[in-house]
Design a protein that fits this description.
ten-stranded mixed beta sheet, 348 residues, globular, alpha+beta, Pseudouridine synthase, 8 helices
């Protein structure tokens, strides 16, 4: 899976309009994370918002720890941001005692400190509302009217909420490691790496189910026996029937059809939905059994994703600029792949 061409899950809106050049410079991909809260101004944890360019998140966390005279374990962040990009993100440093640090002294051409505050709670991984993206694409040879039609389609129907290609590691390595782990060919004591392999297996099964529903044309519609995710949450419910209320809530985007995040227990899906899901995951029994043995529980994920504040325009230099906001746990790549294709590079 080292190139987009191997990301073979079905497209919802007719395939890419054309091939483009992407990420020629870090400035071509800008991401700014949004926390679900703002630092309150007091507490044991120093919150530092930075603007970084061409800089690895974990490496920067270690630099901040060294600068503040702390153990690397005292510095945390909500999520990784790609190195080959410009990113605005928060870090938290556990510093109970007041410290008068010269924050501007750590700045460089590729790093600026934007804000420093305090908060009562440590910033933990996943503690994120979402991310705003601003992306520049070059060599866009497709007609403007085709682009307009595609964007309007995405505004109306959203995009399939696939896990992005980067979830599976370089050349699909994380998924292959999961297969080896489940067959006993690999022993992995590192909890972080093991978690990556489990996530890759789970994500692959979800993507397979979603791709099948895209091919059938019901990924963004109710299917008999569906379970529905409540918008903005991980909670789901499985109604006895698809009545007018369910259809209206789907239309209003209050709820979304869901697919399986595989694990122990009985799938809550029923009827046609259960039949489809079992037919797909039944082709990957080793992955299913491995996830169950690892102790993961059955969960659900929305099949559709609606980019918020989606905007697009051509800049004076001919680049296509696309911007949007996505909730945590979703991928800019899956929005882009419904518009264009590119040869290499992961936007996240």
């Amino acid at each position: 899976m080292s190139s987009q061409s191997s990301f073979t899950f079905a497209h919802a809106h007719g395939g890419p309009l054309g091939a483009v050049q992407f990420r020629q410079t870090p400035e071509d991909f800008f991401v700014e994370e949004k926390l679900p809260f703002l630092p309150c101004g007091s507490g044991e944890h120093v919150y530092v918002q930075v603007r970084k360019r061409n800089t690895n998140t974990d490496w920067l966390a270690r630099q901040l720890a060294q600068f503040a005279g702390l153990s690397p374990k005292a510095v945390s962040y909500a999520g990784l941001k790609d190195r080959n990009a410009v990113a605005v993100q928060w870090f938290s440093l556990h510093m109970p005692k007041p410290e008068d640090l010269d924050w501007p002294s750590i700045e460089s051409e590729d790093l600026q400190v934007l804000e420093v505050s305090r908060h009562q709670q440590k910033l933990r991984k996943g503690m994120l509302k979402g991310n705003t993206f601003r992306i520049r694409l070059a060599d866009c040879a497709f007609p403007n009217d085709a682009l307009e039609d595609r964007m309007q389609c995405i505004l109306r129907e959203g995009v399939p909420n696939y896990f992005g290609e980067q979830r599976f590691g370089h050349s699909g390595g994380n998924l292959e490691k999961a297969r080896a782990l489940f067959t006993g060919k690999l022993r992995e004591k590192n909890r972080h790496k093991r978690g990556l392999y489990l996530s890759a297996a789970r994500s692959f099964l979800f993507n397979r189910v979603l791709s099948a529903r895209v091919e059938q044309g019901n990924w963004n519609h109710a299917l008999a026996g569906d379970c529905f995710i409540l918008a903005g949450s991980n909670s789901f419910f499985c109604p006895d029937e698809l009545d007018e209320v369910i259809q209206r809530r789907l239309q209003e985007r209050d709820i979304h059809p869901s697919g399986p995040l595989w694990g122990r227990g009985t799938s809550p899906a029923r009827e046609a939905c259960a039949t489809l899901e079992q037919a797909i995951v039944g082709q990957e029994l080793a992955l299913c059994e491995g996830l169950e043995a690892a102790g993961l529980k059955q969960e659900r994920r929305s099949l559709r994703l609606f980019p918020e504040d989606l905007q697009w325009s051509f800049a004076d230099d001919g680049h296509l600029e696309v911007s949007f906001f996505l909730p945590a746990g979703t991928y800019a790549t899956v929005v882009l792949r419904e518009i264009v294709s590119w040869e290499s590079g992961f936007p996240e």
